[in-house]
Amino acid sequence: MSSILDQLKSMTVAVADTGDIKSIKQFTPRDATTNPSLITVAAGMPEYADVVEGALTCAEKQAGEGASSDKVVGFAMDRLAVEFGLRILQIVPGRVSTEVDARLSYDTNASIEKARYLIGQYAAAGIGRERVLIKLAATWEGIRAAEILQKEGINCNLTLVFGLHQAIACAEAGVRLISPFVGRILDWYKKDTGRDSYPPAEDPGVVSVTAIYNYYKKHGYQTEVMGASFRNSGEIIELAGCDLLTIAPNLLAELQSQTGTLVRKLDPAKAASMDIPKTPVDEATFRKMHEADRMANDKLDEGIKGFSKAIVALEKLLTEKVSAVAAKAS
After folding, report:
1. pLDDT in tens, 15-71
2. What is the number of H-type helices and E-type strands within the chain?
3. Where are the alpha helices (DSSP H) in 194-248?
4. Is 135 designated active site?
5. Domains of the chain (ranges plus CATH)?
6. Whether 230 contacts 236, CB under 8 Å
7. In the Cβ-directed half-sphere of 104, how many Cα atoms lie within 13 Å?
8. Suppose 145 and one of 10, 55, 75, 111 were both cysteines; which one would form an S-S bond, judging by CB atoms 3.0 to 4.6 Å apart?
């Protein structure tokens, strides 16, 4: 009998949620996603020292002779994300998601400029736009940036999605893909209610992604739903049939080792027959719904701060490497 992972791949696109290239090779997903936390961890691993060195060398050339270490590190940050993306694209047949600096999450124009720059870096390496998803936080400003980028042919992955209002706004903006965070939603509810666990079918993160998926399919939106941030394999099994699921290596391994019959839980035909009213979301509605949703409010803010913290840690690592090279040269 085929594994649960193999059965899942027959109904859902499996995506590797990691910056670890070895894991991507092991599980042969179609796509891969990265984020600042994953890149920071990978950049600190000895086996990827050459990737970091390559990014720094490229950044030094780009910054020009005599450039400050801050300028070099600034270029190196973007280059490192692209370097990991380029290596991942040598393995996966589909797409890689590369994230815009989370500190720009509330700045539409700056997010657009950074996205264009990252796409330009991929283009210079011979990678077409169809193989890259630009990740942006699903703030109102991030969604507006994605709307403009999508019209330019730059596909976007809106991340840190915790509420239906975020998902609807993304779909109405023509976003290519969203990443609702299943496990982080569960974390919030466990802390808020004092419960230790939820049955998989009642998991608040599973319930949230199911509602988003059904809303999209009912109303004919083309935006793809990619469940993310899983805490256990039960959550994944309950979302079998979702457009995509991005899964960490340890859970991919667990699913690969499991056998049995996987039942499809999400189905566009079933969703189309459901009675789900349409709720247009303009800026006022978005902000009102977001303010009323304590979980989405808390987790979006926490997620942006967490990714920003990872970026600062990566900047520190790269600054230390630049300083070490400069000291050695002198």
Report:
1. 999 988 889 999 989 999 888 888 888 888 888 888 888 888 888 888 888 788 889
2. 15, 8
3. 204-219, 233-238
4. yes
5. 4-329 (3.20.20.70)
6. yes
7. 18
8. 111
